[in-house]
Specification:
Layout lengths: L10 H8 L9 H11 L12 H7 L4 H15 L3 H25 L2 H6 L5 E6 L2 E6 L8 E5 L7 E13 L1 H4 L5 E2 L18 E2 L4 E13 L5 H11 L6 H30 L4 H15 L4 H18 L2 E3 L3 H7 L3 E5 H5 L5 E6 L4 E4 L10 E3 L2 E3 L5 H12 L4 E4 L18 E4 L2 H12 L4 H5 L3 E6 L7 E8 L2 E8 L1 H5 L2 E6 L2 E4 L2 H16 L3 E10 L8 H4 L3 E10 L6 H10 L3 E5 L4 H11 L7 E4 H6 L2 H7 L3 E5 L3 H13 L4 E5 L5 H6 L2 E5 L5 H6 L2 E3 L5 H40 L8 H11 L1 H7 L25 H26 L4 H25 L15 H19 L4 H4 L6 H28 L20
Length: 931
């Protein structure tokens, strides 16, 4: 039964298959038996880890295990401050990881909250209220407006029934329901009009249906299963740092062993070399790296919050910075999710309607000239029909009920709509032109209403006014035209000739081609004693008044945001449950769809194999009428092609793809709890443009991470090389263990932390996205680390050797030479840190721009001077005061690595200007090709 196409069955086949009666429903004992057979109508949460196990899992990471080892070594050496610092880093990282994973467990609980708590079911011939969790296949359920659907139902009857399914299907307007069988296979959810799905909401009418699926077998259950099965992607930053940690540890330990062995072979004391080797190992392992990464990400998160983007998972900020594709839901993300009339046609002319959202401000314009309703009889009549044949209410958000007035400017948030979005669009249209329910209340009184239904595709009301009566009708133009005998043309009622019908149809087609949803409006003056007991009687011999074309309009800021993404080499893809024509029009309007770009429907996508999809996925920009499974396939296909994928959305149907994407982005205002819990980033203002800020922030954070990795590793290479070369040359130890540990804690730590908050370079958002497979050492970073590290080591050793040769023999001379080596190493690193701010050289950026870095360098310098000149500290760090000669030698040697390489870079760039990174575009289009 799980794979049954319930929408295709007739009522007789349906009831026979389920073994139930439409008059009496299921007997109580039969319902109990089926409950035992099928299980409760609930969404399972799958296997859950205990909080304790979640916390302990945080200590399995390779880098964490190495840091624990470094903690033990530091403790054994008596370096308790180092040990406490490393231990604090480990605990903080574990707590952050635990919080992130614990939050992820809540996504299915949010999904379960969409289930209705109770339902009205027919049991044993009586209507009873039962817990929704106890519904079983075959139960007859009764629904009315405002009810949440308690299970997947096949409808047996539907009276003016409309369901809001955007959270499940992505379609922006409520769907009209009927009870007739639909003889088609592979229908998208949004086209199964004779079905009602668990978790959706009835916005109008009443319905009676039979339960066909419960629990995890429902469409909502399938999404829950997808969320459970979908593994969250490890971020590029996490992968790179893990690889970096392994490489560094192997290299550092290998070099350290070589230094120890070389020293012993050259006659150095074994115990002294062991202490020096262990100190080098502690210094070489970048135990501060996780802390600096965490701080950099946390500060980035604070900046993001100020830009209305709430980060739920720290590494996701960096991940968004290397996104190459953004897959965006249309409804509520790229568009406002507020149906708006943008065009009207009133017998012989088409008018443009201005204004956005629900604010009753704007108007109608003919070629840029404003049109007043009082001066245009056709427009005035059309607006009257729009306001009268309507059940939606537009009101001020702060008031329970308010008359609509188009007066002083109001913020969009000051107005809210209650009712059907399509009717709301007509209410707002009328209000923009000064007509509202309150202004017409004294003139027109509703006598009768014939609700919209899926067969007639019309709604009509009968109103009385000034001794007369009027039938007002709105509905689908093609069916409405069949009921019209006249047309209001230039303010006069004239016979509806074939020529005029053709003009109306041409106007309708023109609006439809612009992806507008078109409604026709008509009326009839009723005779004094004419009876209108049925819709058939009211909806005949009508006068056609005009057409209203409406659309869920794009957000104002989105087009500029997409253009910025395009300049940054990021492809934007629209994924929606809405109709293909509408999606294509919005995509073209926003600049998403280039010439030559493809649009694919859910049916076409379902017919493709994964291999076929992978071949064309780079050239597809719009996916329409897609299911949650389709969205998941799209994300995975892009990932197989090497893209870093960001997925935005607000509905339940977006949650599996949001979770599977490299970074999932949920809408904070319109988004469901399910999509938020599955996401890494929540947009507090539902503003697509905030994603651009997040991308810039992410790129900046990653570049800053590369900066302090460059600084830390070059410093570590310099320290190890100083010791290694000295041992190979048979020289005494140039640095003592305590001095190495001091450099590691003070000189490396503070400036590296300041690099984590460095300002971005100017061309950051004109570069193409980096590859997810890119090494952390890419773009010559490895060369810069090795070359600067070698120069720092050679210059430090050179200063040590020169001083050692000129100093008196004995312990005093060796102490002076070691102090000079210590000062040279510290100063070389403090100068080098400013070089790390630029991808080119120290001369390409203002060294005073990063005030935190200047302060960190001054602090490190002050601490070094204290070690040199405070008598109480000299015995601890085995230093001696140095004079002007030694200072000059140290500063010259310390400046060579940075300034020599910097001058070489400037001279090289003046001879041959380095080309900027280029973004290739698809032929004929403006969208970047990311192949």
């Amino acid at each position: 039964m799980e794979n049954t196409n319930w929408h295709r069955l007739s009522e007789e086949e349906l009831l026979a298959r389920l073994g139930c009666s439409p008059e009496s429903g299921l007997a109580p004992d039969e319902a109990a038996r089926r409950l035992a057979e099928h299980g409760r109508n609930e969404l399972s949460e799958g296997e859950k880890l205990s909080p304790a196990k979640l916390f302990l899992n945080q200590f399995k990471d390779f880098m964490v295990l190495v840091l624990i080892g470094a903690t033990l070594i530091s403790g054994l050496l008596g370096e308790y401050l180092d040990a406490i610092t490393i231990l604090a880093i480990i605990v903080i990282n574990a707590v952050l990881g635990f919080i992130q994973e614990f939050r992820a467990e809540r996504s299915l609980r949010a999904l379960k909250e969409l289930s209705a708590p109770t339902a009205h079911a027919l049991r044993g011939g009586s209507i009873v209220s039962v817990a929704a969790s106890e519904l079983v296949p075959g139960d007859i359920v009764l629904l009315q407006s405002g009810d949440r659907v308690p299970a997947d139902l096949r409808l047996l009857s539907a009276n003016g029934c409309q369901a809001e399914e955007s959270a499940l299907t992505g379609e922006s307007v409520p769907v009209s329901k009927h009870a007739d069988p639909i003889d088609e296979d592979d229908l998208p959810l949004g086209d199964r009009r004779n079905m009602a799905f668990l978790g959706t909401l009835l916005t109008g009418g009443t319905a009676r249906g039979v339960v066909v699926r419960t629990g995890m077998g429902t469409e909502m259950g399938k999404i829950a299963d997808l969320i459970q099965q979908t593994e969250e992607m490890e971020t590029p930053l996490q992968r790179r740092l893990e690889q970096l940690g392994k490489i560094l540890i192997v290299v550092a330990l290998g070099l350290t062993v070589m230094v120890v062995v070389a020293g012993i072979l050259h006659g150095q004391p074994a115990y002294g070399m062991f202490l020096a080797g262990v100190s080098l190992a502690v210094a070489a392992i970048p135990e501060g790296l996780p802390a600096i990464v965490t701080v950099a990400l946390a500060l980035g998160v604070q900046r993001m919050i100020r830009r209305k983007a709430i980060v739920r998972k720290l590494p996701s900020v960096e991940t968004l910075g290397c996104a190459s594709v953004i897959c965006s839901d249309k409804t509520g993300t790229l568009t406002q999710n507020k149906m708006t009339v943008t065009r009207v046609w009133t017998g012989s002319r088409e008018l443009e309607v201005t204004g956005e959202g629900y604010v009753p401000q704007g108007g109608c314009f003919d070629g840029g000239k404003p049109v007043e309703a009082k001066d245009d009889a056709s427009l005035r009549r059309m607006l009257q029909i729009a306001a009268l044949c309507n059940n939606a209410v537009l009101q001020r958000a702060a008031e329970p009920a308010a008359a609509v007035r188009s007066s002083a400017p109001e913020p969009e948030e000051a107005w809210e709509l209650k009712g059907d979005p399509t009717e709301g669009a007509l209410v707002v249209l009328a209000a923009k032109m000064g007509l509202s329910a309150s202004s017409l209340e004294g003139l027109y009184k509703r006598e009768q209403e014939f609700p919209f239904d899926s067969e007639r595709k019309r709604m009509s009301v009968v109103v009385s006014h000034q001794g007369g009566r009027l039938a007002c009708v709105k509905g689908a133009p093609d069916l409405l035209l069949e009921r019209c005998a006249y047309i209001l043309w230039d303010g006069k009622v004239v016979p509806f000739t074939g020529t005029l019908r053709t003009k109306v149809q041409q106007a309708q087609e023109a609006m439809a081609q612009s992806a507008l949803r078109v409604l026709g409006l008509a009326y009839r003056e009723l005779k004094p004693h004419e009876s209108c007991e049925t819709a058939e009687e009211a909806e005949c011999q009508l006068v056609f008044a005009g057409l209203a074309g409406m659309i869920d309009p794009p957000r104002r800021e989105v087009q500029a945001a997409i253009a910025t993404c395009r300049r940054a080499g990021i492809k934007t893809v629209m994924i929606t449950g809405d109709h293909q024509l509408t999606a294509e029009a919005i995509a073209a309007q926003l600049g998403i769809m280039p010439r030559g770009g493809l649009s694919v429907s859910g049916r076409e996508l379902a017919a493709m194999s994964d291999e076929e999809l992978d071949k064309v996925v780079d050239n597809i920009y719009v996916y329409a009428r897609v299911s949650p499974e389709h969205k998941l396939r799209i994300v995975k296909s892009l990932q197989r092609k090497g893209h870093v994928v960001a997925m935005t959305g607000d509905g339940v149907n977006d949650a599996p793809a949001i979770k599977a994407a490299d970074i999932g982005i949920a809408m904070g205002i319109s988004g469901t709890d399910v999509s938020k819990e599955a996401s890494s980033l929540v947009l507090g203002d539902d503003n697509f443009a905030s994603i651009v800020s997040a991308i810039e922030e992410g790129r900046s954070i990653y570049e800053n991470i590369r900066k302090f990795i460059r600084y830390l590793l070059a410093s570590n290479v310099g320290e190890i090389l100083t010791m290694f070369l000295a041992m190979m040359a048979g020289l005494p130890l140039p640095l003592l263990p305590i001095q190495i540990l001091w450099v590691n804690l003070v000189t490396d730590g503070l400036p590296a932390m300041a690099l984590g908050v460095d300002q971005a370079e100017n061309d950051l958002m004109t570069q193409k996205p980096r590859s997810a497979r890119e090494s952390i050492f890419a773009r010559r970073l490895g060369w810069k680390i090795v070359s600067r590290g070698i120069l720092i080591g050679v210059c430090t050793l050179g200063a040590f050797w020169i001083t050692l040769r000129s100093a008196p023999e004995g312990a005093a001379g060796l102490a002076l030479a070691q102090t000079v080596a210590f000062v040279t190493l510290v100063m070389a690193q403090l100068i080098h840190v400013f070089d790390c701010r630029s991808s080119r050289s120290i001369f390409h950026r203002n060294i005073l721009q990063n005030k935190y870095l200047v302060l960190a360098v001054l602090s490190s310098l002050g601490l070094m001077l204290a070690v040199l000149y405070v008598p109480a500290l000299q015995p601890i760090f085995k230093t001696v005061p140095i004079g002007l000669r030694e200072w000059c030698l140290s500063l010259v040697a310390a400046g060579i690595p940075t300034f020599v390489m910097g001058i070489g870079s400037v001279l090289g760039s003046s001879k041959k200007r380095k080309p900027k990174s280029r973004i290739s575009y698809t032929s004929g289009g403006s969208q970047p090709s990311l192949r």
